[in-house]
Amino acid sequence: MTDEREITLTVNGTEHTIEVEPRRLLVHAIREDLDMTGTHIGCDTGNCGACTVLKDGEPIKSCLMFAAQADGAEILTVEGMEDLPEADDIHPLQEGFREEHGLQCGYCTPGMLMAGKALLDEHPDPDEETIRDAISGNLCRCTGYQNIVRSIEYAAEELENRAAADGGAVAADGATGGGSAASPQGDASPEGGHAAPEFGGDADTFCGREDCCGGPDGADPFDRDALLEANDADAAGDAGGTDDAADTDADDRGDTK
Ligand code: FES
Ligand code: FES
Questions:
Q1: Tell me: the pLDDT tens digits for 44-79?
Q2: What number does the ligand 2 atom closest to the CA of 106 have?
Q3: What tens digit of pLDDT does each residue of 111-128 get?
Q4: N or C end of the chain: smaller count of CB under 10 Å?
Q5: pLDDT (tens digit per residue) in 224-238
């Protein structure tokens, strides 16, 4: 028989005292003893990141820690996201995953959200490389990561906008030049808001236009048809017809002219 010990975990602001065996993993304590099944188990070996929670503000894989090791800790799980001060109806990160299609099966999403939360707490305006680094311990089988990166970028901008609307000191952030605070739609210039390269590549490779808005930071992040139509118009006006990127776009849609 294994001795149990009493531990206290403050999860999403509520204190819980539970009895656990010394060998009990934190993820099992959260899911089974506290009945918070939003935290997922994908591998139980520390590889997938599905079980990521914040312990005292730091992202940890809860399948790699005994519950007893977390005695006295403050834990944030996905269930607590919508109650955070920066959340409106839902947290901007959750909103970002919805708006930018960052989830498909959604299995990895709780871990991604927690990794994203830890990142934005430390780096409110991360570049793409920093985001990819922050989620490198989280596996997603479905989305190819690009939409997840965009989801976190969306949240960063939304948080910045909300802070600016609240009279926060966002504009003092020299890295952004205060561009987003002045312009709700952002600014394609490198000094203001997000430049196109932060959305997945060079500006001239996203839609084929030299002045590509860069996608999600543009006038309408989902109006790609309009971008492609504008692209076609450019291609039609191009007497040489040598715009490779435009040709590719046309071919993609079965337009063989
Ligand atoms: S379940 Fe913890 S890393 Fe996969
Ligand atoms: S959305 Fe399916 S594993 Fe990430």
A1: 999 999 999 999 999 999 999 999 999 999 999 999
A2: 1
A3: 999 999 999 999 999 999
A4: N
A5: 444 445 445 544 444
Q: Ligand 2: does its nearest atom lie under 6 Å from the Cβ of 141? A: yes
- The residues, ordered by sequence, that sit 6+ positions from 11 with a Cβ below 8 Å of its Cβ are 30, 34, 36, 75, 76, 77, 80
The answer to whether the predicted template modeling score (pTM) of the entire model surpasses 0.85 is no
Mean pLDDT score, 145-155: 98
138 lines ligand 2 (CB under 6 A): no
Q: Which ligand is nearest to the CA of 138?
A: 1
